[in-house]
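> example.struct
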């Protein structure tokens, strides 16, 4: 079982391997001759392309069966585990958003709206058979260039990565039809984007309503109309999801997690967690530890 945890609260990346990396799944999972079980932290987007093999991928506590020729999208801040049950073939690409922007602040090539739309809307995507050859060619060139360390490597890797992203977005746009959004749908999307950016500091609907220039009642009404749940519900769920990630993947204690999530009062966090999840923090942590130990033994 390989465990990996992404978080955005890290120092800025500096060298190439922190900005961009590509490796085979065999290298990724079985480094140093044994299955890699240590937790790792980064702030990158990750694209996992599994060509062959079986097992499961756990992403934000949801378990997905692994299928051949499938791509998995991991956003910065997401937690995931890769559980191989047979040898796997494929690649994993990690990149910081800033890698695409190097020396090109004024270039339209860095405006990858479709890329971030993919990561926002998708967890996984099956590669079309007619695109497999193109995907394979570009990713093999990317891997070769990453390993050779020759002159202008960064520039060539950026271009290969952009081509790969273009291939992905073409298939994404072909497979998913997007209808024009209404004003209310745009408001809800903007709300979720803000929650993702500010949930550590902002817990009140009124704060997000102020950012969006609407009243709290109106924001709650529109979010509930579109999603079936109030704005406050979604804010609480995002905070609790991060608390659960920290419990499972970081090994932090309740005090550390409460502070990280912006709670100054430990009893307030404890009450918030129980009211939102229906389970107190200590019981949840004990339960997840047992599940994690059982999974490790099974692998």
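> example.seq
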């Amino acid at each position: 079982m390989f465990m990996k945890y992404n978080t955005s609260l890290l120092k800025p990346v500096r060298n190439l391997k922190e900005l961009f990396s590509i490796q085979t799944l065999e290298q990724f999972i079985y480094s140093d001759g044994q299955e890699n079980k240590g937790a790792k932290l980064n702030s990158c987007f990750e694209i996992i392309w599994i060509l062959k093999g079986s097992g499961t991928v756990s992403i934000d506590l949801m378990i997905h069966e692994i299928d051949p020729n499938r791509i998995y999208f991991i956003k910065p801040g997401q937690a995931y585990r890769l559980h191989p049950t047979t040898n796997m073939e494929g690649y994993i690409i990690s990149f910081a958003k800033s890698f695409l922007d190097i020396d090109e602040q004024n270039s339209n090539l860095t405006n990858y709206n479709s890329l971030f739309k993919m990561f926002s809307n998708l967890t996984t995507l099956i590669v079309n058979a007619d695109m497999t050859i193109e995907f394979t060619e570009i990713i093999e060139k990317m891997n070769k260039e990453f390993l050779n360390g020759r002159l202008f490597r960064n520039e060539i890797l950026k271009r290969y990565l952009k081509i790969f992203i273009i291939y992905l977005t073409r298939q994404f746009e072909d497979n998913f039809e997007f209808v024009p959004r209404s004003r209310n749908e745009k408001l809800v999307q903007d709300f979720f984007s803000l929650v993702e950016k500010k949930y550590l500091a902002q817990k009140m609907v009124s704060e997000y309503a102020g950012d969006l220039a609407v009243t709290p009642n109106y924001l709650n009404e529109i979010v509930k109309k579109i999603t079936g749940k109030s704005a406050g519900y979604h804010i609480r769920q995002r905070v609790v999801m991060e608390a659960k990630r920290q419990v499972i993947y970081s090994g932090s204690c309740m005090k550390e997690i409460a502070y990280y999530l912006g709670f100054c009062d430990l009893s307030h966090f404890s009450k918030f967690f129980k009211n939102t999840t229906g389970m107190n923090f200590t019981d949840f942590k004990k339960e997840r530890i047992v599940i994690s130990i059982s999974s490790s033994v099974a692998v």
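> remarks
The two ends are 6 Å apart (CA to CA).
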